[in-house]
Design the sequence.
């Protein structure tokens, strides 16, 4: 062999391993296996752990929202759905209160508590919304609130959307909302839907609520 080609061949470093994708569905993992040092004195590559896990139960509301805490203004609905046959309908409702200390109108609410492990390589929330039509005096809004040990278990708003800024009449994705600050404990999530009190615009529909941990290399949000 010519000296030039012998020198070139000595400098070629072949691939030492491959990323193997294990599992499918709501959980999967990717790891580097069989990696070794290409030369004397180097530091061997470390295995890569890119697992992800779905933490929300019945995020598509196909089980009538039984995994959720629903108040009077929230219910599973078959009127429309992003995926499957059901979604969550939220609307402002009349509490019937005549008490000064209790409001007459209250938002539709859905709550669920999830346990976020630590470390989780990140965690985020996504969902899909179908807003009713917008007009100046008929604005509808979705609020996402979280309560955890880190904030004294007091609900704070971590996301706010309305049909004034999100196109109504079609399914639109909301998020991702970063929940990394809540790793290592239980997190109570609340989704509120506020609609005009005259009921003229109809409810807000939510579907495919997802809280996922891990480095999400493949974004499956939106595929049914």
Sequence:
């Amino acid at each position: 062999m010519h000296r030039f080609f012998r020198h070139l061949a000595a400098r070629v470093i072949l691939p030492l391993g491959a990323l193997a994708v294990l599992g499918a569905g709501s959980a999967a993992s990717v790891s580097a296996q069989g990696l070794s040092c290409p030369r004397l004195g180097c530091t061997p590559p470390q295995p890569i752990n890119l697992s992800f896990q779905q933490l929300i139960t019945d995020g598509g509301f196909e089980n009538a929202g039984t995994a959720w805490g629903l108040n009077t203004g929230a219910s599973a609905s078959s009127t429309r759905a992003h995926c499957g046959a059901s979604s969550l309908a939220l609307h402002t409702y009349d509490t019937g209160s005549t008490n000064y200390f209790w409001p007459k109108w209250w938002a539709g609410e859905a709550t669920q508590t999830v346990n976020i492990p630590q470390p989780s390589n990140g965690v985020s929330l996504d969902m899909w919304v179908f807003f009713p039509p917008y007009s100046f005096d008929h604005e509808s809004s979705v609020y996402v609130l979280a309560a955890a040990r880190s904030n004294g278990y007091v609900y704070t708003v971590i996301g706010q959307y309305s049909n004034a800024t999100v196109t109504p009449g079609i399914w639109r994705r909301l998020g991702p909302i970063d929940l990394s600050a809540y790793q290592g404990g239980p997190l109570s999530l609340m989704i509120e839907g506020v609609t005009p009190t005259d009921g003229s615009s109809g409810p807000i529909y939510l579907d495919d609520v997802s809280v996922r941990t891990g480095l999400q290399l493949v974004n499956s949000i939106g595929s049914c």
About this structure: The mean pLDDT is 81. Residues 3-11 form the longest helix (9 residues). DSSP finds one helix and 15 strands in the chain.
